[in-house]
Amino acid sequence: MTAIQSLLLISLLSADPLTPGNHMQALDIGGRERSYLVHVPKGYDPETATPVVLTFHGAGMNAWMMAAFSGMSETSDKNGFVVVYPNGTGKGPFQVWNAGGFAPEIRQHMPDDVAYVEALLDDLETVINVDKQRVFACGMSNGAMMSYRLAAEMSKRIAAIAPVAGTIAISESKPERPVAVLHFHGTVDNFVSYERNDESSAVWRMRGVKPSIETWVKLNECDETPAVDVLSNEAADQLKVVRTTYSGGKEGTEVVLVTIEGGGHTWPGRRPGLKILGKSALNIPANDMIWAFFEKHPMK
What we know:
10-stranded mixed β-sheet; globular; disordered N terminus
């Protein structure tokens, strides 16, 4: 039994093995009910250890909304991994993650979401045959910040991460092992600015894109001189996409920044639905790129 298990009361909706389809699981953690949505892919074999991709929603969203926003369940069915959409905390469907960066007066009322994810993975292992070397995390905006936090504080359980439109929000990152990073960001993101080195307000403080990438290049001991290639040139209704790769990290890790020129606060390959979010790069499939990156970087 882990330290988390000994401190937290975890109760399951059902301990029966999950079958292909969508399932909402519940946890009772210290008297607070938490939940997460699991999509089990078609053809799932409970006798085979299966990769898991944790997919974190942005602020003001929830698990079901993130499933629709990202389309990761379709990618799950195509590639045979289990995708988990955790729920943050808040009022109704408007949920948020304690990913760091909040002002002290706000943070003191927020739950320990790292402990929640630890408990979630313990719970998941009772109903899914989890490949513990291939547990990954991605997320949108505040959910991307949560994936960065997990890489720093849960590196023994998270093999690699793929933040989308979100940066580091914690003050210090001290992972116990190297974690590969694939970061997507639009240059005209009006919610999490691409150009600024650091952003702060009375409510929230976060790092910029450049400092976030530099942090993990240093942590993973990657080559400081990157390889740069253009994935897609600008066309009629498309956006130019540039990939910057820092390779040669410890245990084969790398840090990759995918820059969407003219892109907004969006998930590449998916239509954002709201004009306020800006343009999305529909000419690159972020989900396929994320899964290919995760396949390349299991835990050693």
